[in-house]
Amino acid sequence: MRGEVRNLILNLTSSRNFTLDIANAIWVREGAKQEKEYVETIRKYYRGEIREIDFLNRASS
């Protein structure tokens, strides 16, 4: 499934007649351990990013 999603994104974004804008991010608790393999999978297959946020502090969320 991951490969198919990655290929779809690459195919759609490489077309000159088509524009695909994606806002891909996963928000995790600030200071939470992020598994390297998981982060790499999100970046490679989904062109996403993992970002930290302080869910307890309303000013940052």
Automatic annotation (TrEMBL):
Coiled coil: none annotated. This is Serpin domain-containing protein. Pfam families: Serpin. It comes from the Archaea. Residues 6-59 form the Serpin domain.
